[in-house]
Design the sequence.
């Protein structure tokens, strides 16, 4: 919101030259911070609680999952014993912690070496008493996932990593080696000998994993999506799928198809039925960022439409029709990470000129916008070590969880929407 039309135009032009843009961006941000810095590190009208254990750093992960169970009794998160200003190190595990709010106890469930600062280990709840996460089997030299049952304390291994899950029925996944090569922010660093055949797009893509039988199969090859909406820029490019999100009823899933020509990135948004049929390309104008399901038939997201520009849109997945959301209200904030509960859209912003990241709730019913907090991020956290707020509602919509570094360390925080408490 604080950047002018001219500044955004320059940024768009520089997008064609990623290395030049990155250098110019950092220099410009540092100059702006000196001019616009604020006297406080955070501000909110709501009570905020830090989730902390052993006086260590903590975080949860991505914006599409909530760390609290549906019955509001347990919180799961990753505990970090090292300085998270550094890149993740597969030789230094993080601890998976189960916090029992009722009994006020913390239990270490496992040590994880497959993680990153943006999405953690893909930690997520499957039901009120079961959660799943990724890890690395060193003996087999492969990524796996594990399911933990709070009642039985059973930790069951699945012979493949997960990206998103539907209850305890199935998971969808991708090749995390490909992610590591093309976008290490979301990959894992356990393997040092990765060899990738970038011309073979027929034998990699999105995988279906039966969580009950432990069976894995290739559901949607990358080549099938290339063929579906082929563009000249795809020839000789390096391709990947990521940001898979399963619809609330488990019948469909969306994902991003991204391809790289040198360092330039192109995006498209794809949706399909869970059996890999009825595939549709919903957005193909070079840029698609963060999305979220709105019910089972609509997707809300920040993306580019060549006619209307880069904005938040609601897309009808049956017709493909896009509608601008929050015209002249939220579109000025630029890209953020949306999480939706009922009619309320929770989203964050990237650091502004004063290095403050902001949290907002926009109500689709009355177009009311409320800022619920702002939080400082120093230049010590940048690039792969950045700490996006990645805010998420609790399942009942009464609390907001977010990761932040405004106190100088990475921590998971809980904001209570029912308890006003001036900071």
Sequence:
């Amino acid at each position: 919101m604080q950047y002018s039309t001219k500044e955004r135009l320059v940024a768009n032009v520089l997008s064609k030259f990623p290395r030049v843009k990155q250098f110019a961006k950092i220099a410009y941000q540092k100059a702006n911070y000196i001019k616009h810095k604020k006297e406080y590190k955070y501000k909110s009208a709501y009570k905020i609680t830090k989730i902390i254990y052993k006086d260590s750093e903590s975080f949860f992960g991505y914006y599409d999952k909530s760390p609290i169970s549906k019955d509001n009794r347990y919180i799961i998160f990753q505990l970090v014993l090292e300085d998270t200003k550094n890149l993740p190190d597969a030789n230094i595990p993080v601890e998976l912690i189960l916090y029992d709010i009722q009994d006020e106890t913390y239990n270490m469930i496992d040590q994880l070496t497959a993680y990153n600062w943006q999405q953690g280990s893909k930690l997520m709840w499957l039901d009120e008493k079961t959660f799943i996460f990724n890890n690395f089997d060193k003996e087999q030299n492969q990524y796996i996932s594990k399911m933990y049952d709070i009642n039985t304390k059973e930790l069951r291994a699945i012979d493949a990593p997960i990206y998103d899950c539907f209850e305890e029925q199935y998971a969808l996944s991708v090749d995390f080696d490909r992610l590591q090569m093309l976008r290490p922010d979301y990959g894992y660093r356990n393997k040092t000998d990765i060899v990738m055949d970038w011309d073979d797009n027929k034998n990699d893509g999105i995988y279906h994993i039966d969580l009950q039988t432990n069976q894995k199969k290739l559901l949607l090859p990358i080549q099938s999506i290339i063929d579906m909406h082929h563009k000249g820029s795809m020839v000789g490019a390096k391709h990947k799928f990521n940001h898979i999100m399963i619809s609330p009823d488990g019948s469909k899933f969306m994902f991003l198809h991204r391809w790289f020509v040198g360092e330039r990135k192109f995006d498209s948004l794809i949706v399909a039925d869970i059996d890999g049929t009825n595939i549709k390309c919903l957005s193909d104008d070079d840029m698609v960022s963060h999305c979220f399901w709105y019910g089972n038939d609509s997707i809300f997201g920040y993306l580019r439409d060549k006619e209307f520009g880069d904005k938040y849109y609601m897309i009808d997945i049956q017709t493909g029709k896009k509608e601008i959301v929050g015209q002249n209200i939220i579109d000025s904030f630029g890209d953020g990470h949306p999480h939706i509960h009922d009619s309320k859209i929770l989203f964050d912003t990237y650091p502004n000129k004063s290095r403050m990241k902001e949290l907002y709730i926009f109500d689709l019913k009355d177009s009311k916008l409320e800022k619920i907090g702002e939080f400082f991020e120093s230049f010590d956290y940048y690039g792969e070590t950045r700490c996006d707020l990645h805010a998420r509602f609790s399942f009942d919509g009464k609390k907001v969880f977010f990761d932040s570094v405004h106190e100088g360390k990475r921590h998971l925080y809980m904001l209570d929407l029912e308890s006003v408490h001036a900071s």
Q: What stands out?
A: The chain has one domain: 37-420. The helical segments are 5-14, 18-36, 176-182, 222-228.
